Amino acid sequence: MLHLASDPAGERLAVISHDGSLRLVTWGGDGAAGDASPQVRQIHRSEHGEMLSPSFSPDGRYLLWTSPTVVESQVHQLMVLDTSRESEPVALTGGVFHDSSPAFTADGKHIAFLSTRTLDPHYDDHEFNLSFAGSVRPWLLPLSAAEPAPFGPSAEGWPVSGGRTGDAADTATAGTGGTDAPASPDLDAEHAEQRIVPFPVPSASYRDLRTAQGGVLWIRSAQETGELGTRRAGVSGEAAGDELIRWDVAARKATTLVDKVDSYAVSGDGSRLVVRAGEKVTAVPSTRKVEKDDDAESVTVDLERLRLTVDRSAEWAQMFEETCRLMSQQFWREDMDGVDWDAVVDRWRPVVAKVRTDDDLHDVLWETVGELNTSHAYVMPAEGDAPGSARKLGLLGADLEPAGAQGWRITRILPSESSEPEARCPLRAPGVDAREGDLIAAVDGRPVDPVAGPNAQLAGAAGKPVLLDLRRGSGEDGAVGAAGGVTRRVVVVPLASEEELRYQDWVRSRREYVAQASQGRLGYVHVPDMSSPGWAQLHRDLRLAAEHEGIVVDVRYNRGGHTSQMVLQRLSKQLVAWATARWETGVEPYPSSAPRGPVVFVANRWSGSDGDIVNAAAQAMDLGPVIGERTWGGVIGIDGRFTLVDGTTVTQPKYSFWIDGYGWGVENHGVDPDIEVVHDPSVWFSEDDPQLDRAVAEALERLRQTPAATPPSLGAPKNRG
Could you report the per-residue pLDDT of 531-564, keeping only the tens digit for each? Predict the structure, then answer.
């Protein structure tokens, strides 16, 4: 079961399960004596994924939910069922736009919901493209065609006091359930979608709409950062949080109810809210904002008083059984791809009784799901602070070597990448002026140990200002770091990790390698994954790479994700025109950033998941050859929604791929390169890169056969007078 909702009387339960079914469960008898079995009615079956947000009208007559209209539940439409009679569900919207979080207003006359019906594109800052953001808006749908919205024009007028005359005032004053709940009107399903009206608030990023006493609530997501959070790099202070917004029906306006919220719930009578923000849980009124900390109606829940006693053996047994059950329900093939799953579970179940630690259990779970011989069957323990994590070693973004009693010498300073906040070298910061050959003589005034180096003083210094004494030679012989040299004291902020800094340096080195090997004729891009970091990395280099005669696309070490089709769209553009302008020497290709010539891909055994798919799809599209090694071979994807009782995440291979040329065969095999080049162990410690060498050679040979597109000359003027 994925989602549950009870009717206001507590007599029926709407149940959405993992198999795409919605069922209505009605308790038998009086519900107490257990003298009758509950009645179960199949209401709806989705063929496109998971239904969401079941709820009842205040009088219990109508059941409301959203149902997906495209695969993988990306777009939902509103569905409603009149439970007072034998009838079929009715679609209230067409499923063109994504509708979410539907709820009945307290008077039972309207459905409020969120929907992506705003199409207001904005231009991309990094490429010629238009995209949509902040497209969500709250909307209102009257059940009866004769029912006006509780805002906008009214034939009865609006009183000066702010309330509305007539029956529509019930929207502001009615409760949210119980025996005295107002009766919902008959549904006029015809033209229902044409009756919807937007709340008079700007479109933005909204989520989690619910109704409460006298109003409608939703969360407005803060939009200070993107997927990577780099918009706030270097900005001090806490980022703005998501806000809980209340639309007051009587006052006809929206106000901020809670400044920072992660999630919230509404009480049964609609008068109170339970709000969670980080580790803090608070109960507040639903009708007004709490302005003062000592407000008697605001109650902070003391979570420190929670106590829990756990039978670890029983917990481990339950975690094992749940992992196995989830796998049997979610695995991409009902026949478990020929594996006798019940026998596997029976074989490993006795081993669980011998488990004595969490690590033991995780090992057993790995071994159990591993018998399916399928990728993406993960067991990931809950993340926690590792021992010593509070004292992370501060790193300087440089290679160092001992230089005797004088200190440690800087032999190489890694170059910064200004567009990546995590790839800024501390020794290249303003005012530092460190140079290769300088000596680090002291850290925070203490001399550097000639054997251990500066790391001992840099423990716990990650992200904190640190004083370095840098010594530079000044003798006539130019000996850098010699005794008697000039010593400068500078402030640096060491890094917690050099991974991104060293990665960007590696990309730079591969870009220069391809440029040198091709004598400047080929561009280079590396795509480290098929998610947001990889998308950002692609756009660091693609525009400049496309100006060359051909492009080497390096997807070695690609960690996978879900953006391969977007990457391929960028690389498969076909150049068909050129544009020029007076006083400009350059000529712009059309479409922009379209490759002028051949595209070749480079892959290795660590190109996995969507990194497998991008290579197989490139072959199927005849976009370019794949050069290197056979890829990882794991294309049965996951959504990662399930966690066990202790926070351990377990995944179920659920989404499989059939690819032209491979069928279902990429899983457990990988993508065979068109031209195989395997790096032997000696290459890892060499300046040579045979895979890139072969990619460059192939691209140049293709250019010899079919030269790159070049801009045409203007030709003779049309008017020759």
Answer: 999 999 999 999 999 999 999 999 999 999 999 9
- Residue 391 and residue 157: Cα distance in Å, rounded? 66
Closest CA to 432 of 466, 383, 473, 399: 466
> What is the C-alpha separation between 169 and 59, in angstroms, rounded?
18
> How many residues are given for the chain?
721
* DSSP helix/strand/coil, 345: helix
382 alpha carbon, distance to own chain's centre: 19
Q: What is the rounded distance in angstroms from the CA atom of residue 79 to the CA atom of residue 43?
A: 11
pLDDT tens track for 640-673: 899 999 999 999 999 999 999 999 999 999 999 9
Beta carbons within 8 Å of 311's beta carbon, 6+ residues apart: none
Residues 6+ positions from 139 with CB-CB distance below 8 Å: 112, 113, 114, 115, 117, 196, 197, 198, 199
Q: Which of 266, 297, 298, 295 is nearest to 282 (CA)?
A: 298
d(C-alpha 406, C-alpha 449), whole Å: 9
The residue to which tokens 């007076």 are assigned: 582
Helix 312-330 with 341-352: angle, nearest 10 deg: 170
d(CA 570, CA 129): 11
d(CA 670, CA 719): 61
Quick count: other Cβ atoms within 10 Å of Cβ 25?
16
Instruction: Please give the positions annotated as active site.
Output: 376, 609, 667
Distance of alpha carbon 448 from alpha carbon 392, whole angstroms: 19
Distance set, CA 703 to CA 100, 458, 550, 623, 706 (Å):
51, 52, 8, 15, 5
| Amino acid symbol at 221 | S
* Residues whose CB falls within 8 Å of the CB of residue 361, separated by 6 or more in sequence, listed in order: 316, 319, 320, 352, 355
Output b/e per residue, 592-616; b: 16+ Cβ within 10 A: ebbbbbbbbbbbbbebbbbbbbbbb
* CB distance 287 to 215 below 8 Å: yes
The span from the CA of 454 to the CA of 467, in Å, is: 12
In whole angstroms, how far apart are CA 120 and each of 116, 133, 641?
11, 8, 32
Average pLDDT over every residue of 304-309:
87
Is residue 671 a contact partner of residue 659, using CB atoms and an 8 Å limit?
A: no
Which residues, including other chains, have CB under 8 Å from residue 238's CB and lie 6 or more apart? none
For residue range 116-130, list pLDDT tens digits in order. 999 999 998 888 888
What are 561-597's pLDDT values in tens digits? Answer: 999 999 999 999 999 999 999 888 888 999 999 999 9
Work out whether strand 550-554 and strand 52-56 pair parallel, antiparallel, or are unpaired: unpaired
What does the pLDDT average to over 11-32?
84
Total Cβ atoms within 10 A of residue 384: 8
d(CA 50, CA 100): 13
Encode 538-581 in three state secondary structure. Answer: HHHHHHHHHCCCEEEEECCCCCCECCHHHHHHHHCCCCCEEECC
| Of 233, 200, 164, nearest in space to 156 by CA | 164
DSSP letter assigned to residue 304: G
Span 351-383, pLDDT tens digits:
999 999 999 999 999 999 999 999 999 999 998
Cis peptide upstream of residue 200 (ω within 30 degrees of 0): no
pLDDT band, very low/low/confident/very high, at 478 (cuts 50, 70, 90):
very low
Kindly state the tokens that stand for 562: 């879900």
Runs of H (alpha helix) within 524-682: 532-546, 564-571, 610-620
